[in-house]
Amino acid sequence: MIRTDDIQILLTYGDIALASSLIVIVLIVSWRLRLKLTKTLLIAAIRTVVQLSFIGLILAWIFAREQWYEVLLILTIMTLIAGIAAKNRVKRTYKGLFTDTLIAVGTSAVLVTIIAIGLILRVEPWYTPQFVIPILGLILGNSLTAISLTSNQLVESFHEQQGRIEMMLSLSAYPFEAVHEQIRAAIVNGMTPTLNSMLVVGIVSLPGMMTGQILAGADPTQAVRYQIVTMFLICVSSTLGCTISALLIYRRFFNRRKQFILPQ
């Protein structure tokens, strides 16, 4: 390690290699307990290094240029990948699922990022990459998890409880009444990781963003303020994403005659 001053420590490639070697412990545990995770762990470890190194080079290039169209292209690609990732986590798919997840992820994350950049942080110009890219990435990462949990549970429950839903419709229930409990449970499931994180933050865990700022030598009080802001941004984005996703899925499972259907 190279000490630059009394606070900041710069990591060398040797430090990263030392940290990477810790994966051996996980591999030994996997081997001894026959978890059959060796291949997955190796692929995950390699992808972590390659993906983060690659994005580091891209970000350094983008930060140096500060061109709005290049920043917009990066933001668009990030949103598309988040939509694909959310779609791939839903076990039982249907035609139009990618469109639904992309709309849910994109609408919630972009709207909250605009509020963060324009109203809270008041970044000028808006496309300043060191602000807009990390903020959107942070929101996307949490939103896609919440949306995929909501989507997966809601689609599964619609299939498993088809008879119950059709019975309620036969008893004159409105379509939304017939599936309200499934929608409510799915949104709660999607919001659970975010709510759990908010309940224990600062007591049990120190979030990555705050930890990173403190390790980089930032004022802890400022790091805490940034973390509070991002926690609320994540909460709002996740709530919007889960709600939009649930409503889009709800529309897919009812036709124009308000009949319950299972889309293929």
Give a brief outline of the structure.
The protein is mostly helical and 264 residues long. 76% of the residues lie in helices and 2% in strands.
What do you see in this structure?
The chain is mainly α and 264 residues long. Helix content is 76%, strand content 2%. The chain has 10 helices and 2 strands. Strands 1-2 form a two-stranded antiparallel ribbon. Helix 2 (23-32) runs antiparallel to helix 3 and helix 6 (129-160) runs parallel beside helix 10 (220-252). The longest helix has 33 residues, at 220-252. The protein is globular. The termini are far apart. 25% of the residues are buried. The mean pLDDT is 89.
Low-confidence stretches: none
Taken in chain order, the helices and strands follow as: EEHHHHHHHHHH
Q: Label the structural class.
A: mainly alpha
**Which descriptor suits the 3D outline?**
globular
Helix content: over 70%
Q: What is the subunit organization of this protein?
A: single chain
CA radius of gyration is 22 Å
How are the strands of the largest sheet arranged? 1-2
Cα(first) to Cα(last) distance is 56 Å
| Proportion of residues in β-strands | under 5%
In this structure, how is the largest beta sheet organized?
A: 2 strands, antiparallel
The average pLDDT is 89
* Number of DSSP E strands: 2
Enumerate how many helices there are, as a single number: 10
